[in-house]
Every structure is written in structure tokens, then in C-alpha cells.
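Shipment paperwork, digital attachment
Item: protein structure file
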Amino acid sequence: MDDRGRRATEPVHIPRGGEPDAPLNLASSTETPPPVKIDPYVGKTIDGRYFVEAPLGEGGMGVVYSAKHKVIGKKVAIKVLRGEMARDAEITERFLQEAKAASSIGNPHIVDISDFGTLPDGCTYFVMEFLAGKSLSEVMTESKPVKVPRLLQIAKQIAAGLGAAHEAGIVHRDLKPDNVMLITRGSGEAGKDFVKILDFGIAKVGGAAGEGPRLTRAGTVFGTPHYMSPEQAAGTPVDLRTDIYALGIILYEMASGKVPFDADNFMGILTQHMYKAPVPILALVPAPEIPPSLDAIIQKCLTKKVEGRYPSMADLLQDLEKLERGEVP
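Attachment content:
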């Protein structure tokens, strides 16, 4: 089976020392299929301004819809917090934090959020720019591995966007290919593969200039297993270097066509993040397909101890640019 086929792409919350409970499937072939669920928002107008057209996708915290502003006709995306979660004050606060965090960064590589509100049923929502493109995970499925020039172009933009987030005191903590959109902006080759980073739902605000609001419990694990740093896997405090590790995982996957750590269960993956060294990419994809300098950059991102990684996205970006120019970082 392809390694992406069995991957859990949703962020998970795992109590230390445990695994998420697996639901039992008790359905039989003789049971009557459940009734088709009618979406409560499609075809409706939100706050008198946004006409909801269709669902675009579903995540751990909410559903994203395509919509149009009724007056100016601008197409937007609306993320609505799930009804059962809207009653949880901490989850609602985290949802609000996602909107505030993304909108405060002010970088073209971060999704733009323009509005926030509460629906009559008590659910909260926010409005963001509509992105017509493909996720990085889709691109990697189509092009595996990603050619080095394209890899560097994508990686530089991710580093620039997250560098701006870190300067604003925000650590993403759930960077993964599903949260990176590639869109077309402008004309010609230069307009392709423009990066937009999404989903700051479990971001740590105050990561560079103080702790900020505490929205997670001590000793808990938040993130997506294949892209989690060792410190995340251990449930210990994180800083901006956890995003550098996650970007290293993405670079490894783009360069080799597979993630460095995989297992049949969540805890097996987390254990490898904490204790197992990744197989060098040059052992999987020989030179000259992969420059040794790129392998070195990725291995530095994936160092188990945070002090061994790049100290900032700016430092990582500098080495990526040197490699692109043909220099040895």
C-alpha cells in the first residue's frame, strides 16, 4: 500500500501514553442505510451577506463552504465550527484564535481572513479568501518525487510565510501538505505554485514573545502524527523550531516520495519521531537527482534536539536560496 494511503491527515489529540480510540463498525449488510443528511447552510445566506453555495471540505473542527458576497459578488470560503463543538468554550476560543492568528500575520503566503461572526444556531464562522488550486498533498500524489527546482520554489515560500508567522509570535504546530495550497497568481511560469498556508486551528500564539493564552493542557499531544516534531510527540513545550521540523518532513517527502517515519499505529509513528534517525534521502534517491546539500538541509531540519535545527525560518530560507543559486550552503 502507498504510504499516503493509510496516513491519518487529521490532527489528533492523544493523551500521553495512549492512543485514540478506534470506533467499532457494527453495521451489517441487512441494515437500512441512514437517511441522507441535509446540510443546514447550503443555499442559505449568512449574516445577510454571504450566500453559501456548496461544501468544499471537512476538517477536525469545522466545515468549509464556498460562498459569494451578495452585494459585490466576490467568491469567498467560509469555515463554520461544528455544531457539537460550538458548545465547548475552549474549542470556540481556539477557533477564534485561528481567525485572529492568520489575519494578524499579514503575509501573502498566509490565507487571508476577512470576517468573523456567530450564526443564529450559535455556531461561529469566519470568512477567508477562496483559493482555486491544489493542496501540496495532491501535487505530491501526482508528481512523486517533486523535482528539485519546483521543490525549492515551494519550500522557500513556505519558509517565508511561516517566518512571518513566527515574527508575529505564532507557531503553526500542524504544518502538513494538506495545509499548503498551491494556486496560480499572475501569468506565465512565475505565477504557478504560489503558496498559501492554511489552518492555524492548533497554532500556539505567543510562541516568540511570551506564552500567550493557554489553550492546551499540559502533557497532551496535538498535531498530525506523520509531521509532528519529537517534542510534540512527547507532549513537551514547543517553539518555532517545531515548524522547522515539520517543514523538514515535507521536504523529505517531496524529495523522496515518502515520509521518513511510518507505522501501523499512531504511537509507532510518534516513537520513531522521538528515537529513530531518518534514512538519508541519498539512500533512496541517488545523486544527481538529489543534491547532497539538499539532503544536508533536510537532515538539519529533522534533528531530534531542537538546538540542532535551524534557529529560524530565515536561516533555513537562506540555505534554500544558496542551493537554488548552485552554491553550497
